[in-house]
Structure formats: C-alpha cells, structure tokens
Amino acid sequence: MERHDMIKELMEAADQKMTPKQANIIRAAIEIFAEKGYAATSTSEIANRAGVAEGTIFRHYKTKKELLISIVTPMITRFAAPFFAEKFVNNVFVDENLADMDTLLRELIKERYEFVKQNVPLLKIILQEMAFHPEIQRGYREAFVTNVLPRFKKAVELFKEKGQIGDFPTETVMRLTISTVAGFMIARFIIMPDFDWDDEQEIEYTLRFIRNGLIDG
C-alpha cells in the first residue's frame, strides 16, 4: 500500500500551499506533540527542531493552540484517525466487500492497520489531546456522522438480514466493532509497539473475536 506523506496530506486537506519553513514547523510540531504531548511542548522547542526563529511560528499561527488545531483538524476531517475517513469508507464499504461479514471486517481491519502504521505520531496526538479540546471532539463527531454512519448502518442491517449478525441493535454492533479494532491498533502501535507481534495472525484473531461475538446475539 502506498506510504502516506503526512505533510503532503495536511497541505491538501488545508487546501493551501505551505512554504518550506511552514512545512518544517508542522513536521516538528507533529514529532514533539507526539513525543511529549501538547501541554509539555513549547513553541521554542518546535522552532529549534524546525530550524526557524520562534517568531516565524507566530507569523503563521497566532498561538500554539492554533498550530495544534491546524494539524489535527485536517487529520480528522480527511482521515479521522483511526476510523472515519471518507477515503477509508470508499475503499472498504464497497459492494464486493458486502458479500459476507468476514470479507468486510478483514478489509476494514487491514485498511486501518496500514493507515495507522504510517501515521502513528498523528494518532498519538489525537488520542492525547481529544479530551482537552472541544474542536477536536467536534471534528471527530462530524466526520463520523457525515462519512461513516450511513454506510456502516447499511452494512450492519444487510448482514443482520443474512443471518450473519445476531440480534444486536445496529448501534451496538458498530460500537463493539469500532472499539475492538481501535483497541488492537492502540495496543499494537502505542502501548506495546516493541512486542514481537505476528500482525497477520493478530488481524485474524481480531476478526475471529468480532465475528464470534456478533453472531451469537
């Protein structure tokens, strides 16, 4: 799968042309926010790593908070780490994946695995900061409601009609699926990144866990 270029994606999402210095600022901020968290990061640290004067940051961003939001908002609205990207929905919720639940779940897990693998620093930032910033929470909700909810509900209802999902409310099926896949990604890439994982086997274990839980409703 093609490797994501975070700076390029952020520029496209923001629909603006970044100068080389601005791109360096964004890259440095992503790295340090992911390493230390937003609150523990100073703009002087970002400037030092970016190789620019601290005043250069404030020519582009009025505050450190504005810099954070400029990084996170495009991530959410375009990709919404780790589930709610329009591109993700278009890749996963296609007719050929709706033939059976296993096919859809496997595609969902593998697609999100590849995406998170290439964007761990941004995932760390979102997980660290979501609880503290209403703007991030709002973007997350809006992306889910707009891009994912209708397609996910349609797929769940279809599999329920086929007898592939037990007698669970549709919203419960979505919650259980999302929380299980998100838990796998967080454990794999953030909590235990250095563990000797067999990723293909872990994907199959995750698929089996979701499938067996949902079929016995």
UniProtKB/TrEMBL annotation:
<keyword id="KW-0678">Repressor</keyword>
<dbReference type="Pfam" id="PF00440">
    <property type="entry name" value="TetR_N"/>
</dbReference>
<dbReference type="GO" id="GO:0003677">
    <property type="term" value="F:DNA binding"/>
</dbReference>
<dbReference type="InterPro" id="IPR001647">
    <property type="entry name" value="HTH_TetR"/>
</dbReference>
<feature type="domain" description="HTH tetR-type">
    <location>
        <begin position="19"/>
        <end position="79"/>
    </location>
</feature>
<dbReference type="InterPro" id="IPR036271">
    <property type="entry name" value="Tet_transcr_reg_TetR-rel_C_sf"/>
</dbReference>
<dbReference type="InterPro" id="IPR050624">
    <property type="entry name" value="HTH-type_Tx_Regulator"/>
</dbReference>
<feature type="DNA-binding region" description="H-T-H motif">
    <location>
        <begin position="42"/>
        <end position="61"/>
    </location>
</feature>
<keyword id="KW-0238">DNA-binding</keyword>
<dbReference type="InterPro" id="IPR009057">
    <property type="entry name" value="Homeodomain-like_sf"/>
</dbReference>
<protein>
    <submittedName>
        <fullName>DNA-binding transcriptional regulator, AcrR family</fullName>
    </submittedName>
</protein>
